[in-house]
UniProtKB/TrEMBL annotation:
PANTHER family: ACETOLACTATE SYNTHASE CATALYTIC SUBUNIT, MITOCHONDRIAL, THIAMINE PYROPHOSPHATE ENZYMES. This is Thiamine pyrophosphate-binding protein. Residues 201-334 form the Thiamine pyrophosphate enzyme central domain. It comes from Methylobrevis albus. Belongs to the TPP enzyme family.
Length: 591
């Protein structure tokens, strides 16, 4: 007879979930048994570590718009999910965690692990998700699964946890007595869409028409709303500066003349310089976070602002917008596009072109470097030559995000770059590549990570090999935690806890990859980068390309200097204090 694991697997399959990422335990084995009987519609990807299951599910969700599903068992499995859950929560990524639990009549014994592996999982997940539920009975489960999909995909999307007790999972499923159904509107995010009120749209159009130097900042919410085509149309009508957050990259092609790259301390120099000259900032699907708002120095007091977001809490959180457009991003852009005629900003476009050219000249100096250890821009430029339009690039946290943003342009509209910016934690790229490769079989997946980040999840290389995935893992190895070394050197003149190797111990990531069944390549000379990448790209399976890089290199423009040559004179400053500012129409936009 069928069991409740069959019911869960069947409902997941009916919701269009093709992949579940996770690690089984005794309490969740019924789920795996149910999936095994439906492999024509859904399959399980076994991970080496539960935290990596969430990262793999995160990549699946970003590439499909559907909730990524991960499964873990009670206790030690559950308590490894927070890193991935918080990443998804902060980045608004739909995700469903299926979590095992002690039998219902054991729950009073969960405290202090009296019952093995027990702890208060419901309270735990309530703090790191949109919502979490403990399934109280077999009859309640179908409705809670429907609720999980609805909440995960409703504005603002995010992760939810469905905690299923062992005895519920193992119970028999009487299919005649307990029938199931799904809500097909919640198969992918957003579950529902709304539109801004007409008067707000009219006010926004009026403000845009008056602007002489408009700029739009596209965030990750553009991709979450499947709004890249509408964003491209709007950018073409605006004829002003276009920048993105890191997660917003691909909202428009960065090859367009008015697109200046990623707005972030790790991002494009031209974007940072030009955005300060705008008289109107349009924040579209961007939460004006610390990095995108340049430590909340943006907007400037004289800049008028428009915010476009489906989350009402984002309108006025760090500044008071001149015009808030509360509604779905795709719907809002559609209304603006219908009302706005193409604008003319010849002088502004000429200024954008000039600053971009200056930025490209600065980058070319780094690209042309013949130094040993290798300059990261040289490596990234070689990678850029080989990337195809359909390739997916996954960034790990820290400096890798900057090297990618500056030297790997988004050539097409759509989500072809995945960044772990919701939490900014190390160790995202390798497991996310597993999720991406499983989601898009045959597509080349390229990861870029520092040696510190790569070390976090190196065990999952075995999963890439087992799945024979087409993944090229690029490790920029400087033998240390680059960000920490920079911080300690500049602010304390004392590097103490950033070194990851010594004369007696220098890990080889290429050799580690080879030992786990991947192809390994080690590069320490600039002329060897291209041949190693060519070999890795030609290989029909996963590979590791380890590149020895300059340990002083940084993508942060304000810190581009040789720290050990005495040029680092910056002093630490206390955290930025900001207050709510009223961004009224600037003199240029006044009646």
């Amino acid at each position: 007879m069928a069991h409740i694991g069959d019911l869960v697997a069947e409902m997941l399959a009916q919701y269009g979930v093709e992949l579940v990422f996770g690690m089984p335990g005794g309490q969740t084995t019924a789920l795996h048994d149910g999936i095994s009987r439906r492999t024509d519609r859904i399959r399980h990807v076994l991970m080496r570590d539960e935290r990596n299951a969430a990262y793999a599910a995160d990549a699946y969700a970003r590439l499909t718009g559907k909730p990524g599903v991960c499964d873990v068992t009670v206790g030690p499995g559950a308590n490894l999910l927070p890193a991935g859950f918080i990443e998804a929560l902060n980045a608004s990524i739909p995700m469903i965690g299926i979590v095992g639990e002690l039998p219902l009549d054991w729950l009073s014994l969960k405290d202090k692990g009296i019952a093995s592996q027990g702890f208060d999982q419901l309270s735990f997940f309530k703090t790191i998700s949109k919502d979490a539920w403990l399934v109280p009975s077999v009859s309640a489960l179908p409705d809670l699964i429907r609720t999980a999909f609805r909440v995960a995909t409703s504005p603002r999307p995010g992760p939810v946890a469905l905690i299923i007790p062992h005895d519920v999972f193992d119970a028999e499923w009487d299919e005649a007595a307990l029938t199931i159904s799904i809500d097909d509107r919640a198969i992918r995010a957003p579950f529902v869409r709304s539109a801004p009120v007409g008067s707000a749209v009219a006010d926004a159009v009026t403000l845009i028409r008056k602007a002489k130097r408009p700029a739009v900042i596209f965030g990750g919410g553009v991709h979450g709303a499947d709004a890249a085509p509408a964003a491209c149309d709007f950018a073409e009508r605006l004829q002003g500066l276009v920048v993105t957050s890191l997660t917003g990259r691909g909202a428009v092609p960065e090859t367009l003349p008015y697109a200046a790259g990623a707005l972030n301390p790790l991002g494009a120099w031209a974007a940072i310089e030009l955005v300060k000259e705008a008289d109107l900032l349009i924040w579209c699907g961007s939460k004006a976070s610390q990095n995108t708002a340049l430590n909340w120095t943006l907007p400037l007091p004289e800049q008028a602002t428009i915010t476009i977001d489906s989350d009402p809490d984002e309108h006025g959180r760090t500044f008071r917008p001149t015009v808030p457009l509360f509604g779905d991003i795709r719907e809002a852009l559609g209304l603006l596009n219908a009302a706005l005629e193409p604008q003319q900003h010849g002088e502004w476009l000429a200024r954008i072109a000039a600053v971009k050219a200056e930025g490209e000249a600065l980058k070319q100096v780094e690209i042309d470097s013949e130094q040993i250890p290798i300059s990261p821009p040289r490596a990234m430029a070689e990678l850029a030559k080989r990337l195809g339009d359909d390739d997916i690039v996954i960034s790990d946290a820290s400096f890798s995000a900057g090297w990618i943003a500056n030297f790997l342009p988004a050539r097409r509209a759509g989500r072809s770059f995945l960044y772990a910016r919701g939490q900014g934690g190390l160790g995202y790229s390798t497991p996310a590549a597993i999720g991406a490769a499983a989601t898009l079989p045959g597509t080349r997946i390229v990861t870029v990570a520092g040696d510190g980040a790569f070390s976090y999840t190196i065990g999952e290389l075995a999963t890439q090999a087992q799945q024979n995935q087409r993944v090229v893992n690029i490790v920029l190895n400087n033998g240390r935690l680059g960000w920490i070394q920079l911080w300690q050197e500049i602010f304390f003149k004392n590097v103490q806890s950033a070194l990851l190797e010594s004369q007696s111990c220098a890990p080889s990531f290429a050799d580690a990859g080879t030992a786990m069944g991947l192809k390994g390549f080690y590069v320490e000379k600039p002329d060897d980068i291209g041949p190693a990448l060519d070999a890795a790209f030609a290989y029909d399976g996963p590979s590791v390309v380890e590149i020895r890089i300059d340990d002083l290199a940084t993508p942060i423009h304000s810190f581009k200097r040789r720290m050990r040559e005495g040029a680092a004179t910056a002093k630490p400053r206390p955290g930025t204090v900001y207050k709510l500012r009223d961004h009224k129409i600037s003199p240029d936009l006044a009646e």
